[in-house]
Specification:
Elements (H helix, E strand, L loop, with lengths): L4 E3 L4 H8 L4 E4 L5 H6 L7 E4 L9 E4 L2 E5 L4 H7 L5 H7 L5 H4 L4 H7 L6 H8 L2 E4 L3 E3 H4 L14 E7 L3 E8 L6 E10 L2 E7 L7 E2 L1 H9 L24 H19 L1
Parallel strand pairs: 1-3, 2-3
Antiparallel strand pairs: 4-5, 5-8, 6-7, 6-8, 9-10, 10-11, 11-12
Helix pairs in contact: 3-4
Length: about 260
């Protein structure tokens, strides 16, 4: 690991100012960035920690929306969102292991947009809004491919707002060593329709399975997707599972999520 300076701002404004320097990078829980730096795949000269910013901490509920600060840990989401949005809390409570859940943050996960991370599926299926220090970005506009997002240089994820659906569930077929999703599906039923988001499967990162959404909006039952299939084209093909296997898992996990949500 190369030498670096650690800055610990206490306000968003201080963090933004610190990030204006050359080769400065925001640091959430460090669950991805620090291992990457240890492998010398990244070498920022300054890390700007967001974990001490009070206005980016915690979970609040108002008007049918769960708002989560960007520096809130997975463990906190699991505990504080449980009554308002059980599916989101359950997802957070099964990320990694206890050490990861008590260090990793939702803002770091959403900003990194790992193709096998769990939170992107919840954000996209919920039709959530990603809030930054400069604007608000709809989930459908935020995720732009593997490790790619709509964030500009120096922009910080300060929070995420989740509309609470009528019913929801997340099903994850995990890779047992990393506990990332080999494939994960988040299903959310709203009064105006159903949203289905898939993580861990596609080379393009998290995506919506629109055919399933249409079928489930008409009939919220696992039987509604019985005749549907997912193409293996563009699916991740690696030593953990073939593209065809992941495509099969999408349908299986979607059916399980619908049944559990119902």
């Amino acid at each position: 690991m190369h030498n670096f300076e650690l800055v610990k701002p206490t306000t968003i404004a201080e963090a933004v100012a610190a990030l204006s320097g050359d080769e400065a990078q925001p640091l959430g829980g460090g669950q991805t960035l620090i291992p990457t730096m240890k492998q010398r795949l990244a070498a920022p000269t300054t890390l700007v920690s967001t974990t001490g910013i009070a206005e980016m901490q915690g979970v609040s509920v108002s008007g049918g929306v769960v708002s989560v600060g960007g520096a809130t840990t997975h463990a906190t989401v699991a505990a504080e969102a449980a009554s308002a949005y059980p599916a989101l809390a359950d997802l957070a409570g099964h990320i990694g292991d206890p050490a990861v859940r008590n260090r990793g943050t939702i803002g770091g996960s959403v900003a990194n947009n790992d193709p096998a991370a769990c939170y992107p599926a919840a954000v996209l299926a919920s039709g959530a809004t990603v809030k930054t220090n400069t604007r608000e970005i709809a989930a459908d506009d935020y995720f732009q491919g593997m490790f790619e997002t709509a964030l500009d240089e120096g922009e910080i994820v300060t929070g995420v707002s989740f509309p609470v659906p009528e019913a929801a569930n997340y099903q994850k077929f995990l890779q047992p060593a990393s506990r990332f999703a080999l494939t994960g599906v988040f299903v959310a039923k709203f009064p105006d329709g159903v949203r289905v988001a898939v993580t861990g499967a596609s080379e393009e990162g998290v995506f919506r399975w629109t055919e399933a959404e249409a079928a489930l909006s008409a009939n919220f039952s696992a039987d509604a997707i019985a005749d549907l299939s997912v193409s293996a084209d563009g699916m991740i093909n690696d030593l953990h599972g073939s593209g065809a296997y992941r495509a099969h898992l999408i349908k299986v996990l979607t059916g399980r999520a619908v049944t559990a949500a119902g």
